[in-house]
Amino acid sequence: MKEACGRMGMSYSKGWKIVNRAENELGYALILRHHGGRSGGSCSLTPESISLVRRYRALEERVKKYADTAFQEMFTEL
Questions:
Q1: What's the CA gap between 26 and 32, in Å, rounded?
Q2: Is the pTM of this model over 0.85?
Q3: Rg of the chain's alpha carbons, rounded to an integer?
Q4: Which one of 18, 26, 32, 75 has the minimum C-beta count within 10 Å?
């Protein structure tokens, strides 16, 4: 989680707020939390979150294809 937030230029606390809110809204866990200890904690994605990301990416691709086709139909002169 810390690495992901860093890559996005987002604070760690804000990242957790977003994840916690999404989990509350969706009604299921997105991240498995493994709390610290000597070597520190870690996080991993749940199968549900992996499915959500895959479906979202498929939706993005479908919307992009539709938008490209619609643009070509409406603006053929460009």
A1: 15
A2: no
A3: 18
A4: 75
Asked if 54 and 71 touch (Cβ cutoff 8 Å), the reply is no
Per-residue pLDDT of the chain (78 residues; tens, 9 = 90+): 888 999 999 999 999 999 999 999 999 999 999 887 677 788 999 999 999 999 999 999 999 999 999 999 999 887
Are the C-beta atoms of residues 48 and 29 closer than 8 Å to each other? yes
- How many residues in total does the chain contain? 78
Please tell me what DSSP assigns to residue 28: S
Q: Give the pairing of strands 31-34 and 42-45.
A: antiparallel
Q: Which residues contact 32 (CB under 8 A, 6 or more apart)?
A: 43, 44, 45, 46
Q: Which of 12, 44, 43, 49 is nearest to 27 (CA)?
A: 49
Cα separation values, 47 from 29, 44, 53, Å = 9, 10, 10
